[in-house]
Every structure is written in C-alpha cells, then in structure tokens.
C-alpha cells in the first residue's frame, strides 16, 4: 500500500463513509488534475464526472482562477469582516446582486452550503420576530430534502438514512410531498393530478400560516434525494402559494446554482424570485469554500436599528467573506461572461439528452432524469413493475466502480447513478463519459441477469 493511502487510512475519517469498508479496500489518492480530469498518484487519469462533488465548473487548474488567487495572495489572504470590509467581498456582493433574481439586494457570506442554509433559516426566523409576528417560528420543507449537515439544515432535511439518528436533536418542520412524478408519494397520475403535491402546501398554510416563518426548497432538483426533479410549473406554483399566505420563500440553490441547470439559477426557469437565495458549491468554480445567502431590502431593513433594539443579526464565522475565496468567485463570474459559458451549454445539454435516450432504453434503467447538466440514472431490477434491487446488491455502487475502471469518476445515491460533469466538458468528452456510463451499466446489470434472472 502506498504511503499516503496508508496515512489516510490510519488518520483520516471521511465524510459520509463507512470507515470499516474504506479501510478494508484499496483506495485512490488524487495527486493532480488537468482540465476535467483528475490524476492519481500512479499517474492514472479519470474524468471528474461529479465535478468534485458538484462544485467544479470550468475544469481544474483553470488559469484565470489560479491567477486570481495568486494575485489576491500578493495582497491579503484573510481578514475578519467584524468591523472591517475587504475589496473582493464587496465587489463580489455587488456582482452577485447584479446576476441574482429580482429583488435580492444584500449578501451575507458564510463558508459552505450548510452554513448558508443556517443563515437563511435564522434570518427568516428573526425577521418575523422583529416584524411583530413572533408566532411565525416553524418551517415547511420537502420530504427527502437535503440542505446540509449542520443541525438546523438537518432539521429541515428529510433523508431518513442520514437524518433519523439525529431526530432528538432537531426542531421539527412540516413536510410536504416530494414533487417527483416517478416516485409520486401520493400515487397520483401526472396526467390528471393537477399537482396535488403543490396543493398540499396550500392545505398546510390555509390552517397554519400564522405559525410558519418560511418554506425551504431545492428548486427543480432534489439533488441528494437522487436527482428527483419537479414537474414544470411546480416551483412557480409553490412560490405563488407562499406569497399568498405571507411566508418567506427560501431557495436553496447550493447544488443548482451557477449554470448547472442551463441557466445561472434554477429559479429563473420559472420566473421565481425568492426572499432568500442560498448559494455555494459552484460559487468559486470549485476552488475554495465559500457560500452566500442573498436577501431582500425588506428583510434587511427589519434588522436595522441601534444596538439597544437588539435587532442585530448575531451570526458569523472566522472565515466569513474570505478574500481569497471571493477573488476566486469573482474570477468564476468573469469566466461566465468572457467565455459565454451559459450560451455554450445548449449543445452540451442536447448531446447529453440524446445519449441518455439510449441509456433509458437499457433493460435495467428505470428512469433517466436530466436538468441541464444534472443527471440521475435510476437502476431498477424490473423496470416495468418498478422493482428495485436489494440494498445488499449495491448496484449503484457497482456501476460507479465499473465506470472508475473505465476511467470515469461518478458517485451513486443508492441505485441512482449521478452524473454532474463540469460545465466546461466538451461535447466529445460528454459523449465519451456517457458511453462509459452506458457500458458500465450494461456490464454490471448483465452480470446481475446471469446471477439473479431479469
Ligand atoms: N443544500 C443542497 C441543496 C445541497 O445539495 C448541499 C450539499 N450537497 C448542501 C445544501 C450542503 O452544502 P455543503 O455540503 O457545502 O455544506
């Protein structure tokens, strides 16, 4: 076993990882990267098919971002935002406001998606306290939601496997159904259901709106739930219902923001302007930890007063508004403009869609979901009667392992094979990666046919 692998296994505790299994198996150590490929210590190259956990946009070692960080290092790496401002943080806030949906005018920084969600929840809560509506203390979240791993974010989460154990620690939101037609929790027919999943929100609010501070949602795609995608019109509909009942609408675009869905922000697809917008992951192009919670003048103004009013938002972190991270984020936004990244996505999305059609026809692919360059391929033991594989078969993991043997790094969520390539992937590279996915699924599910029958 090589030295780093040994050290890692002896000293490191990995996130979301059963360490007993990790330690028992050979593991790859990444030493370098070039473009959309990662290179291990043995010199093997792999396509970064999940954009290093959905963060990388323009590829690795992107010269303009590298240079922006080096330039900022020549000035100042970090200084607190308590009692001080800094140049990249102020400039980035202006630029984020410029590109955000209408009405969002203020930026509160934090360090990752989870903490930016905490900020949104605490702001929403405190807002109502200061608006003379102290009864509005609860949140509504979607079943199977994932908003991060800090305690507030876990409270509004709904993924049993991750969140169940922490229940005694958490506050309890009201849940509304996951808006996924393939996995409809209401067993409704999409052709005739008139989006009962959205109507549920109206039912809850009609009775309880005086107790509800806000609704938090991952717009268009519930990512960690397995790339579950809401039907067209759902987002706009729940936005409208939230406004009608005077609750705050929190859009968690940690996963969907910065071009992933084909537009800068997922909310734009349905003309939705949230009260709070949560951003992270792609904000620095995948370079540095940074997050931002954007909000409106109306919310910001509710916190104004002198110290005796006790309206200050008492929240912040040591690295809030870190200048290096903000410099990387500014370089990221410049690349979007200069390289016309959004304009260049259409052919990539179209090629992906065409390849996915073929993958959808495989015997053991139950559903293929795509929103821009967010892709979930759901494996099914029997696709016609929607019979899943057993947990022990770990089919999603096996397919991803097979893809790795063919030079593509992807991750499963259960039996959903997740493909989230960097936006910079060329049409050719996308075709190659999808070809690997197709053959990996075939190879693994054919073995399954041999072993278990189809
Ligand atoms: N919200 C959403 C929608 C996410 O997908 C994630 C992470 N996958 C988070 C929040 C948490 O972000 P982080 O892991 O950076 O804390």
Report what the structure shows.
The two termini are 39 Å apart. The protein is α/β, with parallel strands linked by helices and 454 residues long. The mean pLDDT is 96. The protein has 2 domains: 166 residues, Aspartate Aminotransferase, domain 1 (Alpha-Beta Complex), CATH 3.90.1150.10; 273 residues, Aspartate Aminotransferase, domain 2. It contains 15 helices and 17 strands. Bound molecules: 4'-deoxy-4'-aminopyridoxal-5'-phosphate (PMP).
Bound molecules: 4'-deoxy-4'-aminopyridoxal-5'-phosphate
Report on the biggest sheet: 7 strands, mixed
The CATH topology of the largest domain turns out to be: Aspartate Aminotransferase, domain 2
Class by alpha and beta content? alpha/beta
Q: Numbering strands along the chain, what is their spatial order in the largest sheet?
A: 4-12-11-10-7-5-6
Fourth-tier CATH superfamily name of the largest domain: Type I PLP-dependent aspartate aminotransferase-like (Major domain)
Number of DSSP strand runs: 17
Which percent band covers the strand fraction?
15-25%
Q: Number of DSSP helices?
A: 15
| Mean of residue pLDDT values | 96
Which overall shape is indicated by the principal axes computed on the Cα atoms?
globular
Uncertain runs: none
The CATH first-level class of the largest domain comes to: Alpha Beta
End-to-end separation in angstroms reads: 39 Å
Rg over CA atoms, rounded to whole Å, is: 22 Å
Total number of domains: 2
Helix content: 25-40%
The CATH architecture of the largest domain comes to 3-Layer(aba) Sandwich
